[in-house]
Design brief:
By secondary structure, this protein is of the alpha/beta class. It is about 45% helix and about 15% strand. The chain has 2 domains: about 140 residues, serine acetyltransferase, domain 1, CATH 1.10.3130.10; about 110 residues, 3 Solenoid (UDP N-Acetylglucosamine Acyltransferase, domain 1). It has 9 helices and 15 strands. It is globular.
Length: about 260
Amino acid sequence: MEKDIWSVIIQEAKCLEIQEPELTDFLRNTISMHDCFENALASILADQVSTIGFPVLHLYELFNKVLLSSIKIKNEACLDLKACFDRDAACEYYLTPLLYFKGYQALQLQRIANFLWNQNRQELALFLQSRMTDVFCLDIHPGAQFGSGIMIDHATGVVIGETSIVGNNVSILHGVTLGGNSTDRGKRHPTIGDGVLISAGAKILGNVKVGDGAKIGAGSLVINHVLPHVTVAGVPASVVGVPAQEQPALAMNQRFDI
């Protein structure tokens, strides 16, 4: 999949150079000059979060090393990219999330930070979390676990805590919180099943489970377990219906009645 997507991205960049000549140097520096997807992703992320004390080349080498050493992260990055392209009606090109969507970029930075976190390099992982918060205006702890095919749409204000677990093919909109509700150091954040749609502004608090294929209504407060394949909404959230789709995350329909 990585090679297929990268080939498409290269062609998109060439076409866009013709359509918008002012972007030629930018597209060549971010896309065309790189040999592979992971090199380009490492470069884009490094440009975003570098500091005077941690310059871009140093970060690029770090990110590239992680991406080259982890087939899992590379595959997840490609599936996340495909999720953005498939689910976001505003996304016309595969290169668009890679270059411009902060939800996509922040998630890939978190995947790298999570890799470092699990390698007992927690301080470096926390540095990357801090840069993510400063640059992208969302906060995802490096200890959080994500499946593949994740889309974080718009992303501003998203907060995801340390012991959160998010399954495959999940869509998360802006203002969502997956938060804790105690001082316990153990599992204290939500577990989200596959195919779940978490609508704008929803708050899911504590060690609760949201079942596969559930839909969480916009602005809802979830403090109890949610069964698979139901729609919940309200404060506190309660069951208001059943999603029409097996995986609501793929349809991105935030209405409660369908």
